[in-house]
Amino acid sequence: MARRYHAQVTDKNKIHLPVHHVSAFAHPYWPVITSEAPEEIRFYQWGLIPFFIKDLPSALKIRNQTANCIGEEAFEKPSFRMPIRQHRCLVPVSGFYEWRTEGKAKYPYFIYGAHHETLSLAGVYDYWKDPTSGDTLATFSIVTCKANNLLSKIHNEKKRMPLILRAEDEKLWLNPEAEKEEILSLVKPLDDEALSAHTISKLITDKKQNSNTEDVYKPFEYPELQLLDM
Description:
Blueprint: H1 2-5, E1 8-9, E2 29-34, E3 40-46, H2 56-62, E4 68-70, H3 81-86, E5 88-93, E6 96-102, E7 105-113, E8 119-129, E9 136-146, H4 149-154, E10 160-162, E11 164-165, H5 170-174, H6 180-185, E12 195-199, H7 223-228
Parallel strand pairs: 1-3, 3-9, 4-9
Antiparallel strand pairs: 2-3, 2-5, 5-8, 6-7, 7-12, 8-9, 8-11, 9-10
């Protein structure tokens, strides 16, 4: 990651171990590259807490609602309109998970770069100060956009996908001087051919087993889906 983003980890106490699967509702710390310090790899918590939240119970509640930020609406939403203007970041991942619905059944997929490269998800972040403890929490949300053809087939109910930035657009996303129109011009789906995907087993939802293993994203076939896709 340091080579990919020309950035360095500054907090050695938060060296990131490989993560194979994690839920947004676990609010993990994740490496991000921010617009205010693009030369650093920082670790912010997933689930944005807006700066204006008054107390800890409200902060813990809203972060369960802000794992994602609808890119097309970010400039109008109270929780995101300041971050989308001033606090944008890159969220590096090797892939992500989505569910396909067919009737009453759901099938999990792993989606990743066509060449297994690191993907830069677009993010926004904010800082919230706990009035009781005085501690400041740095949190982020992943920006979403309309799904491309591949993700429309997989995430076939909401037809949304993470906003994945092309390498040539990362600098503009991090530019604190970028105008609203420039930012909105980036809120568009990545080309289908830039991504690959395959079905995986339902280990991802097995509460009796640890899903944070390499096995979670191994290909797994569902014969009934093969018939549907013929």
